[in-house]
Write a structure and sequence with these properties.
It is a single chain. The chain has 476 residues and is an alpha+beta fold. It contains 18 helices and seven strands. Helix 4 packs across helix 7, helix 6 runs antiparallel to helix 7 and helix 8 packs across helix 13. The chain is elongated, with a radius of gyration of 33 Å.
Length: 476
C-alpha cells in the first residue's frame, strides 16, 4: 500500500518503474521525473489500462476514488475507458450547446407557425434581454436563479408583461432542448409564480365618440413622424390589431382605385394558433372606407417604395416599433386612458350602440366579423370570413364618416413638422400624389423597376433618425 511519504520520495531512474497500490492501481514514475497514476483491468478477455492523472495534481486519495468508480463501472459490465470517453464527449457537446444556439434553432423550427412580425418580436426580445446574460452558457448548466435575474432586470424597468412573455419563451426553448436531448429540465417552468403580477382588467380605451375625436386630434398635432401620424389615423379607421397594422404590406391591398377597395390580411398574420394561421380561406378581409384610401394616398409618397406601409425609420425592411403609436398617445396626455388596441373597443362600443338604434338585426354579428371575432358556437374552420361584405363596407364607411367629421385631411398630417422648425429649416415635404394618381396593380412585382427606385431616393430623408428630446420617448 502506498502513502504520501513514499510518493513524495520516489525518484526517477534510468527506466520507468511502478509503485503499486491495491486493486491494480499504481504510480508510474518516468525517467524525466513525471509521475502518472494508472490502473490495469481486464475487459472482454483483454488487458487494458486507464490514466487517472498526474501526481501530485491528483492525490493518492483522489486516485483511489477514481479507481473505485472505475471498478464499479466494470462490475456493471461496462468498459470504464469507453464510459470515460463518452462522458468527455457528452461534456464537450453540452458546452457547445449554449442557450443562444439552442434558442435560435428553436426559433428557426417554429417561426413558420407565427406571423412574421411576431416571429421577429420573439427573436428581438431574446437578443435584447436574454442572450447578453445567459446566451453563452451551456443550456444544461443554467439554473433557475440565473433566469430569475434576467426577468428581474426586465421587471425593474417597468416591463411586467414583457417579463412574463420572456419567461414563456425561455421555457419553450428549454422544452425544445429536452426533446433534443441537450437539457434534462426546464428551470423557467416554476418562475411564473415569483414574477410580479400583471395588472388585471381590460386595456384602457376611450369609447365616447366626441372624446375619441379629441384624443386623435391631440395626438396628430403632437410631435411625430408623418408615417406614425398616418398609422394612428389608419388604425382608428380600420380597428385592426396593432400587430396586423405594423406588418401591413402594399401588396395586401386590392382595388384601391375602384369602388370596392379591400385590405386582405393573410391568415398567417392573424392572431391565433397554427390551425388558424393555416386555415383555408382564413384571410381577414377589411373593406376600406374612402377616408382609409385617402390615408393610403397620403402615405404613398412616403413609403410607396417600401414593402411595408409603416416601416421602421432606421430600417425600411422592418416594421415600425410596436411602441411608436403608444408613445404618441402617451405624449399627447393619454397614458393610462387609451392604448393602440383600444381602437377596437372604441369601434365595437360605438358601432354597437349605433346599431341598437339605427342598425339591422344582424349588425352585431357583422361588427364582430369586422373585428375578426368568431361567434362562440362556431369553429374557426366553419366560419365564413367573407360573409356580409356589402353590409361591412357600409358600416366601415359610416364609422369613418363619424370618426373623421372634424379631422383634417391626411395630407395635412404629412405637412406637419416632426419637430419645431426655424426660419431656415431644411425640411422637405414630399409632394402629394396628383388627382389622377392610380395605385400600381400587382403589388411587389412593380418594385423591380419603374418608379420605385426613384421614389425611394426621394423618401430617403424620411428615414433619418431625429434627436431625442430630454424627458420624452421618441417614436420609431
Amino acid at each position: 500500500m502506498l502513502n504520501d511519504a513514499k510518493l513524495r520520495s520516489a525518484q526517477p531512474r534510468d527506466k520507468a518503474y511502478k509503485l503499486t497500490d491495491s486493486h491494480r492501481l499504481y504510480l508510474l514514475v518516468k525517467p524525466n521525473g513525471g509521475k502518472l497514476w494508472r490502473w490495469n483491468y481486464s475487459y472482454g478477455g483483454k488487458q487494458k489500462s486507464m490514466n487517472f492523472g498526474i501526481y501530485p495534481m491528483v492525490s493518492l486519495v483522489q486516485a483511489r476514488t477514481k479507481r473505485d468508480e472505475a471498478r464499479a463501472i466494470l462490475n456493471d459490465g461496462k468498459d470504464p475507458a469507453i464510459v470515460k470517453k463518452l462522458t468527455i464527449e457528452a461534456n464537450r457537446t453540452a458546452a457547445e450547446c449554449t442557450f443562444e444556439r439552442v434558442a435560435k434553432e428553436w426559433h428557426e423550427v417554429f417561426k413558420s407557425q407565427w406571423a412574421s412580425v411576431h416571429a421577429d418580436d420573439i427573436l428581438r426580445s431574446l437578443k435584447l434581454d436574454v442572450f447578453p446574460a445567459i446566451g453563452e452558457l451551456p443550456i444544461a448548466d443554467i439554473e433557475p436563479p440565473k433566469i430569475l435575474k434576467v426577468l428581474r432586470e426586465i421587471e425593474a424597468r417597468g416591463s411586467i408583461e414583457t417579463a412574463k412573455r420572456v419567461r414563456q419563451r425561455i421555457s419553450s426553448v428549454f422544452i425544445y432542448a429536452i426533446g433534443e436531448g441537450v437539457a434534462k429540465s426546464d428551470p423557467a417552468e416554476k418562475l411564473a409564480a415569483v414574477l410580479k403580477p400583471v395588472r388585471k382588467g381590460r386595456q384602457p380605451a376611450i369609447t365616447d365618440l366626441g372624446k375619441l375625436r379629441e384624443m386623435i386630434s391631440a395626438a396628430e398635432e403632437d410631435r411625430a413622424r408623418p408615417v406614425t401620424r398616418l398609422a394612428l389615423r389608419f388604425l382608428a379607421l380600420t380597428a385592426v390589431r396593432p400587430g396586423e397594422l405594423r406588418g401591413a404590406r402594399w401588396d395586401e391591398f386590392e382595388d384601391l382605385d375602384g369602388k370596392e377597395p379591400l385590405w386582405r390580411i393573410p391568415a398567417e398574420r392573424m392572431k391565433g394558433d397554427y390551425d388558424r394561421k393555416h386555415e383555408d380561406g382564413g384571410d381577414h378581409l377589411v373593406p376600406l372606407s374612402s377616408q382609409s384610401v385617402a390615408v393610403l394616398r397620403a402615405l404613398w409618397p412616403l413609403t410607396g417604395a417600401c414593402t411595408l406601409l409603416f416601416p421602421n425609420n432606421r430600417n425600411p425592411n422592418q416594421p415600425m416599433s410596436e411602441n411608436a403609436i403608444g408613445y404618441l398617445l402617451n405624449r399627447a396626455g393619454y397614458h393610462g386612458h387609451h392604448v393602440p388596441h383600444g381602437f377596437r373597443a372604441a369601434f365595437s362600443t360605438i358601432m354597437n350602440e349605433w346599431a341598437e338604434q339605427h342598425g339591422k338585426d344582424h349588425d352585431r354579428q357583422v361588427i364582430d366579423l369586422m373585428l375578426a371575432h368568431v361567434p362562440p358556437k362556431k369553429s374557426e374552420g366553419a366560419y365564413n370570413r367573407a360573409a356580409y361584405m356589402p353590409r361591412r363596407r357600409k358600416l366601415a364607411q359610416l364609422w369613418a364618416d363619424m370618426l373623421t367629421e372634424t379631422m383634417p385631411s391626411p395630407e395635412v398630417l404629412v405637412e406637419r413638422p416632426t419637430k419645431p422648425t426655424g426660419e431656415h429649416s431644411r425640411r422637405r415635404v414630399p409632394q402629394p400624389v396628383s388627382a389622377d394618381f392610380r395605385f400600381p396593380v400587382g403589388g411587389a412585382a412593380y418594385r423591380k423597376g419603374g418608379i420605385f427606385p426613384a421614389l425611394f431616393r426621394e423618401q430617403a430623408v424620411l428615414f433619418q433618425p431625429i434627436p431625442k428630446r430630454r424627458g420624452l420617448r421618441h417614436d420609431r
